[in-house]
Amino acid sequence: MDKTELVQQVAHLFKISGYVVDISVEINYREIDVVATERHGLIRKTVLIECADYASAVGIDKLQGDVRKLEAARDHLGHQAIIMHVSEHGYSKNASGFAHDSKIPIYKLADLKSYLIDFSEYIASIKNDPQRGIIASEYQPTTIHVEGRPDQKTSALPFIKQWLSTDNKWLTILGDYGVGKLSLTALMEPAMCTPNGATLGGDSGVRTHRKVRCFPPHRQRGF
Length: 223
Prior knowledge:
Layout: H1 3-16, E1 19-27, E2 30-38, E3 46-52, H2 60-77, E4 81-87, H3 93-102, E5 106-108, H4 109-117, H5 120-127, H6 132-138, E6 143-144, E7 154-155, H7 156-164, H8 181-191, H9 217-220
Parallel strand pairs: 3-4, 4-5
Antiparallel strand pairs: 1-2, 2-3, 6-7
Helix pairs in contact: 1-4, 2-3
């Protein structure tokens, strides 16, 4: 894997995790490989990332040089930013020690993938939800329509299944209290989990956001 491919893969991981992503961004006259900014939130964090495509573990000299560039970019931005380093084949013992002492997140590409898109615990929590059977047996079918088009309302379950077959990235379900929004998403979640533990929707997967407390700690963490 060359540097360009590594940068593109890292950018893709952050993009499907909900970040606004740019690559090869010039900050303070230096080019930063990946700049990822949170799409939502009152104070949106920016992650500045340098990538190393070395054929072996990244050494301390390379890491320190990249960190200096990242720190200069962070200081130049003057707002909340996090610096990070990603490599294809990991880091030497000294480089890892430096990162630990400096409190700088470093990731092997495979580990970053696991961190950002590993839904195994989330999927397990869905499949083992003790309320799953109750919801399935007591769910009352409801209708849904695109906002502003009440004359085109249709059954909610087919509507969502049809949406899953499209390239649309986001669906927000609105409705009055008690109409069944939570029950609808809870009912759909098991159907969106494939036998191998992945989720429908290709590489991007499908996440259903309900209440934070519904998620296991694995999905509540963040950078």
